[in-house]
Amino acid sequence: MFEMSSNMLYIAFGLYLLSTICFAVSITGKKFKNKTGEERNKSALFGYVTAVGAVGFSIAYMALRWIAVGHAPVSNMFEYTAALGIAMALAFVILYPIYKNNYLGLFTMPVVMLIIAYASMFPTEAQPLIPALQSEWLYIHVITTVIGQGILAIGFAAGLLYLVRMVDFTKKDKKVKGVEFIMFTLVATVAYVGIVGGFQAAGYEAEFQYINEFEEEATIAYNLPPLVGPNEGELISEQGFDPPILMPEFIVSEDVNTILWSVLGGMVLYLLLRIVLRRPVGGALQPLVRNVNPQTVDEISYRAIAIGFPIFTLGGLIFAMIWAQIAWTRFWGWDPKEVWALITFLFYAAYLHLRLSRGWQGERSAWLCVIGFALIMFNLIFVNLVIAGLHSYA
Amino acid sequence: MKDVICECGHKNPYGTYLCESCGKPLKEEDKKVANMRYEGVARRSQTYSSSIVDKVWNFFSSVKVGIWIIVLLLVSSSLGTIFPQEMYIPPGENATEYYAQEYGIAGQLYYDLGFHNLYSSWWYMLLIAALGISLVIASLDRFVPLYRALKKQRTTRHAAFMRKQRLYGESDTDDSSDEDFDKVRAALKKKRYNVREENGNLLAEKGRFSRWGPYVNHVGLIIFLIGGMLRFFPGMYLDEQVWVREGEREVIAGTGGEYFIENHEFIVDFYDDDAGELFQEAITREEAPVVSNFQTNASLYRQPDDASIGGESDLEHVEDHEIRVNDPFQIDSISLFQVDFKLNELNTFSFGLEDEEGEMVGDVEFTVDLNDPEGFYEFDNGYTIEIMEYFPNFYIDDNGEPTTLNRVPDNPRIIFEVFPPELEPNEDSGELSMVGIQVNESLNDTSHTIRMTDADTIDVTGLTIRRDHTLPIIITGGAIFMVGLVQGSYWHHRRIWLQRKDGRWLIAGHANKNWHALKKDIASVTEGTSLPEPVDQLDSEEEPQKDE
Predict the structure, then answer these.
(1) pTM attached to this predicted model
(2) Is A388 in contact with B84 (Cβ distance < 8 A)?
(3) Within this chain, do residues B16 and B106 fall inside the same structural domain, yes or no?
């Protein structure tokens, strides 16, 4: 059962890829029109159908894993992050029939794939639940939140689409740098997945003996070649080499090493792209999306946020408070994850007020959508892994 | 300040932008599309500004100020997560030293700025209060005039109003027919529009109630904030911790001595090999065993009304409950939560007595309850042992005096006075010795030695006693907020105006959001008629509209 659920996710991943390709073809491919002027290029339809199929397999993955492990598969970093990707795809599948915008598919599907691939870098095996998580509120709270965030993520995809369409890439201003920074972040994530996934598959492990922050001897295993080593580290495994730099004891050297690899890998990939394209990455994408109606994309991003915001609030704050009252005796305790959920809520509330009352539409609104998504990812990754709190389950 | 009289005869308050009745723009501007926010009504905040009350009102009614408050709250909230708040630093650590020790200069600065208790600082409270005030004033400032304008709106609008709508269409020919008009009206009704007619003009409206969504959710938020504030009133909120040893009863704080809780057994379970093959990989990855359950098997007792004060003997058993994480024990308005535990706390010591030859003295065996020791132990063979002093958690204080840190027997020391048969406990002084874990010192001339023969431990459960009378208010506020949010987000206010002027069609549409659906509605109802397709006047502009 467990293995079958993993296979479902693999199939879904393949279908997301196929859907991306179909949407790309529907945009770049020739426009065939028959005599009555009807569009004969069916690839957009294929794209949508494969996306629906992919979501179906994704839901099958979740259902099977739920049955296999006995609890909702949203209890650790892998499960939650994968669920976020799936939720984004689900939101797209629901929103697409309203606007029939193929460009949105072209921007959404790769992000979905990237999120799921990123998720699978975390330990994917089944984990038992600690007592605090043993409650039906686990799936009520987390699944509602993840659906809300998935819909908000569509706001990001549409916002990014708007920016790629509207920013003037012939200039060298802040806007271009901003879009390029988003592109770099995406590329660096690809690099991270490629590098970590590659070395994982190859079974790479370098082990060090070092002095930890309590001034005790300890060992640490690296799954990537050590660019930086731990404090007074000495290689004790056959694989690996002596790193050029050693970190001081208060830094988790392995994390720094991974980040360094991702950033360097991202830079290499990004530079390659720049050399091949001979212009900003956003600028290279712009001709593809020149037929996008900015008003429509702006409205899609706004709608996504107007729909996602209440769901996120319900799951991420209200259900969260109910559960916190039951499990932790108080509905609110200023735990970092709680605070960052509040910050996300406040941010989107500010977005809605700016849009409704101050007329922040179009480009400014698109930037806000991007920042909002960055906040969601920050709360998922940084707050869980770096800021210790009650929510650190990974 | 004078009212403004529109050419339709309606008297508008000073500051009105679009006539409340016919919609004619009362202020000239060269924008193609009229700003339809709040229907162009005059708001109090834009009308008066002379007195202090007006100034305060104007300040807090501004959405700009509201957004600034939100942003300030957002930024300051994030500052509090840089390092842990004081309540999350390890127990027993002193904040004065902890931050500097753990995080260096940045930590010291964090502490000095008071960020270790950021969320209860005066300025954070002030920001929340400002948010509350802004919610009330900004809502009132807009809701009242908006409500009036939407109630008073006329079916026939001024041509200038029509022209300045974002969606606007005008037919080139003057062949409008009653037949088409009826067709459109029927189609609109079928789409569940609320249709009104006046002099052959038509107003179709749908989802007006979504306009009240923001005000409803603001009311919910205000109730929520009031609920949060009430916590600081006495009697509203109870947060106590109680430690109960296995087999013991403790009074439940906040019940006025009426209820007692007994801990029959405290249980910790771990995931082990029985947890199934599936979890093995994850379990072996963890260095420490993974806990599967914390549980206190508890009983609740009640003091009968006629019982003598303080008597625990005649307690009535009320009910049993297995208190687990995520499954508190509910007693009236009080909940008991499983939050902490202590395994293997010392419970009793058993002793024997050794004479000069190192032989055990027969019959002298006794057990001391470390939580409630007896003073005297008398034996049939004439020996008497007295506990002279008992330190449950022994340490030597700054003056070099032996004393105890608290009543928890973590490091018990007992000073015994042994009276062999030849001594009279009331008159003579006996042999003194101090006994503890791996400690056995004679304090005077002794011929007997007290030997510890056994030690017994017990598990202790830590429960939180919580009563929160603000919860009903918080829940009400949260529910109203959610209703308002959904009401304002998932429904849309749409209006379509249809007029015939000199035989020509004029059609205009307005939606507070989701223009896409409005456009589809218009396209669908005008299909097969001579009505013109309205144009989105924003599409023709290069840059999207930016107000103010």
Answers:
(1) 0.89
(2) yes
(3) no
